[in-house]
Design goal:
seven-stranded mixed sheet; Rossmann fold; globular; alpha/beta; 7 strands
């Protein structure tokens, strides 16, 4: 199966999510009610304060963790969100960096970018922007980013080494990664590996933890820290009930320094 077929399938699935034609792929939300989405967000590590700080419609229940919680964002920093979706994490980051900071979200799905820009108009932020593009080829200048965040998106990239090389390129010296993603911890069965739905559901495209660590080291990142979420099985088992995918992949927080 070609990379283009896979990429187009992923883009199509998340286009449907943006247009509310499909339940979020890496989410346990089956009903679509606000309480359901909030409960998922609490599982991922978001707080009640986080959810109250943005309009309820902005929370799509996507992700496998909360990268903002460990990013230690400071006022005035420039933040880049890889796979920004409807903008939820970007708006939370904006609260941390304030008026003097800046937040850039990048997503490959035009419908998600349109949604995020509409959301930003309603939020009224002048220092948040959303750019259409692939995270393997970032439309960002060299060495200008303080912090890169991402929530369960790099597993969807078909060339993860390019993603991390691009991340390294755009980060300032001393800049940091703060990423939530799923990593393989046991060999995935062939039926899962060859299932496009499982790719879009953030499962079959995941990479083994050791390989991700090696990529980061080879590119030049230091102080690499990879921490599994304690409630990972609970989070992931809800994505594709009955397939026992929590036996093969685990939600991790990945931190590293340039």
């Amino acid at each position: 199966m070609s990379k283009e077929i896979k990429r187009n399938f992923i883009r199509k699935q998340y286009s449907k999510v943006a247009k509310k034609e499909k339940i979020a792929c890496c989410s346990g939300c089956c009903c679509g009610g606000n309480d359901d989405v909030n409960n998922i967000s609490f599982q991922l590590g978001y707080t009640e304060e986080d959810l109250k700080s943005v309009r309820p419609q902005l929370n799509m229940g996507l992700g496998c963790g909360n990268p903002i919680a460990i990013a230690n964002l400071k006022e005035g920093e420039i933040v880049l969100d890889l796979g920004s979706g409807g903008g939820f994490d970007c708006f939370l980051a904006r609260r941390k960096v304030g008026e003097k900071g800046y937040v850039i979200g990048i997503d490959m799905t035009s419908e998600m970018i349109t949604l995020a820009r509409k959301n930003n108009e309603k939020m009224g932020y002048k220092n948040v922007e959303f750019r259409l593009g692939e995270i393997e080829r970032l439309s960002v200048a060299d060495g200008i980013i303080d912090v890169i965040i991402s929530n369960c998106v790099i597993n969807l990239a078909l060339n993860k080494q390019k993603v991390f090389k691009e991340a390294y390129r755009v980060l300032k010296k001393g800049g940091r990664l703060s990423i939530a993603d799923v990593l393989v911890t046991a060999k995935l069965p062939e039926d899962i590996l060859n299932d496009l739905e499982m790719l879009a559901a953030c499962i079959s495209g995941a990479e083994h933890i050791d390989k991700i660590k090696s990529m980061l080291e080879e590119i030049g990142f230091t102080d690499i820290n990879m921490t599994p979420k304690e409630n990972s099985r609970e989070i992931i088992s809800a994505w594709v009930p009955g397939r026992n995918i929590e036996d093969y992949v685990t939600s991790y927080i990945i931190e590293a320094i340039k």
